[in-house]
């Protein structure tokens, strides 16, 4: 299920930004980008995320923003500059090579003259603040997902209700369909073929034929699947795969209903049910 959460921690000299995003995925796939100062806490951060999120493609970022005025100037290694200066003068004297015309430009480009080495030790107090921001970002993501889940539940209920109503509209056409089948066969025998026939035998054949077209079992099973979908959805988290399986079973019954309908209006209803079900299948992938 998609989600997004962000939080910050304000420290005297910097601001810590925490961001976490998730997309739907069948398994847990966690990718982290953590500032070097906090990399030692990566396992702890991963554990915090795994406690809350069961699956999904999760992208976690933690970076530092330095506050204005706290960025110190990069120090120049004076001793090293002096050493380079003396070496260049000796080389110039020994090999007869002219000394540089711009000493500063030459010396400052040499290796390690300008290096900024920061050795940061993560204190317990600082980590406490950063850890709180991590938890806040995770909670914000969870809240985001809850809102999306509520919207999905509303959508599912709407689509299940639509299929239920469409299923009810099939009933009036069933009796009409039987009469049309009977008329079509008798007309073919009497008008097209112009032959005498045994009416009792015809009735028996019609009963057999109509039984083949009977959709009561499909209607009953589909109705049961619709109710089971709702009850499964209400039973709690971690039902995404199960809802997907139920949707597949619903599709089978709707397809059988369509193949047996043998009636234009019933087939139109089946197409509408398929459309509603397809929207369920698209969204059920976003359910945990």
TrEMBL record:
Q: Where is the Endoribonuclease YicC-like N-terminal domain?
A: 1-153
Identify which cofactors the protein needs according to its UniProt entry: a divalent metal cation
User: Mind telling me which Pfam families this protein's record contains?
Assistant: YicC-like_C, YicC-like_N
Q: Which UniProt keywords apply?
A: Endonuclease, Hydrolase, Nuclease
State what protein this is by name: YicC family protein
**Does the record carry Cell division as a key word?**
no
- Domain Endoribonuclease YicC-like C-terminal positions: 173-287
The family assignment reads: Belongs to the YicC/YloC family.
Q: Does the keyword DNA repair apply?
A: no
Q: Name one GO molecular function term.
A: hydrolase activity
UniProt cross-references to PANTHER family, sorted A to Z: UPF0701 PROTEIN YICC
């Amino acid at each position: 299920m998609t989600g997004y959460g962000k939080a910050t921690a304000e420290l005297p000299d910097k601001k810590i930004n925490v961001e976490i995003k998730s997309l739907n995925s069948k398994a847990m796939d966690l990718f982290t980008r953590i500032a070097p100062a906090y990399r030692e806490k990566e396992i702890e951060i991963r554990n915090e995320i795994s406690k809350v999120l069961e699956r999904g493609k999760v992208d976690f970022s933690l970076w530092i923003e330095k506050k204005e005025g706290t960025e110190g100037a990069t120090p120049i290694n004076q001793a090293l500059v002096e050493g380079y200066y003396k070496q260049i003068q000796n080389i110039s004297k020994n090999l007869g090579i002219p000394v540089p015309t711009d000493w500063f430009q030459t010396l400052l480009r040499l290796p390690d003259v300008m290096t900024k080495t920061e050795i940061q030790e993560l204190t317990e107090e600082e980590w406490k603040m950063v850890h709180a921001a991590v938890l806040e970002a995770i909670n914000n993501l969870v809240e985001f997902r809850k809102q999306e889940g509520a919207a999905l539940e509303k959508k599912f209920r709407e689509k299940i209700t639509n299929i239920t109503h469409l299923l009810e509209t099939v009933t009036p056409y069933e009796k009409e369909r039987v009469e049309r089948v009977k008329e079509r066969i008798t007309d073919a025998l009497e008008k097209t073929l112009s032959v005498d026939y045994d009416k009792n035998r015809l009735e028996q054949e019609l009963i057999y034929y109509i039984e083949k077209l009977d959709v009561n079992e499909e209607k009953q099973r589909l109705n049961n699947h619709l109710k089971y979908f709702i009850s499964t959805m209400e039973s709690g988290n971690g039902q995404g795969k199960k809802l997907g399986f139920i949707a597949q079973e619903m599709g089978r019954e709707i397809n059988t209903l369509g193949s047996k309908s043998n009636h234009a209006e019933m087939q139109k209803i089946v197409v509408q049910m398929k459309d509603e079900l397809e929207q369920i299948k698209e969204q059920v992938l976003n359910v945990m």
